[in-house]
Design brief:
single chain, Lipocalin, 2 domains, nine-stranded antiparallel β-sheet, 19% helix, 46% strand
């Protein structure tokens, strides 16, 4: 019993060092993708209209991690958790999943005011489109 307690005490003492080493390894990984931090996503607190031809939406960015989308007829609306990655200063990749098996990925270019959408459905079909991304009035 004393041996287990001693081993546990040693593990507890080493845990912060192991965690720090793991964090350092992840931060030095050239393939790691960081998400935006509070204050880094310029769309937060703003709304944008996007027109993909056969689909139009109002995108309301509630935070760096939450967005509401609404179709013009208000029949297609939802608030979703988002993951936002900065690609360039005005270009962001925004990902969300509305329900199991349905995923959406946008590349939103605020400098050029254009959005690219990639939608993947549960049945394996996918659609892609490009359209203007304009500040909502």
């Amino acid at each position: 019993m004393k041996t287990r307690a001693a081993a546990f005490a040693i593990l507890c003492a080493l845990a912060p060092a192991v965690s720090a080493d793991l964090a350092a390894a992840q931060s030095s990984d050239p393939h790691a993708v960081d998400t935006v931090k509070p204050g880094e996503f310029p769309a937060v607190g703003k709304s944008f209209d996007v027109d993909f031809g056969n689909q139009q939406f109002r995108l309301d960015f509630l935070s760096e991690t939450e967005m509401r989308f609404t179709s013009p007829d208000r029949k297609n609306t939802d608030t979703v958790k988002i993951i936002v990655t900065r690609i360039r200063p005005d270009v962001f990749m925004v990902y969300w999943s509305r329900r199991p098996g349905q995923h959406a990925l946008h590349v939103q270019d605020y400098g050029s005011q254009v959005a690219y959408t990639n939608i993947f459905l549960q049945d394996g079909t996918a659609s892609r489109a490009k359209g203007p991304l304009t500040p909502a009035k």
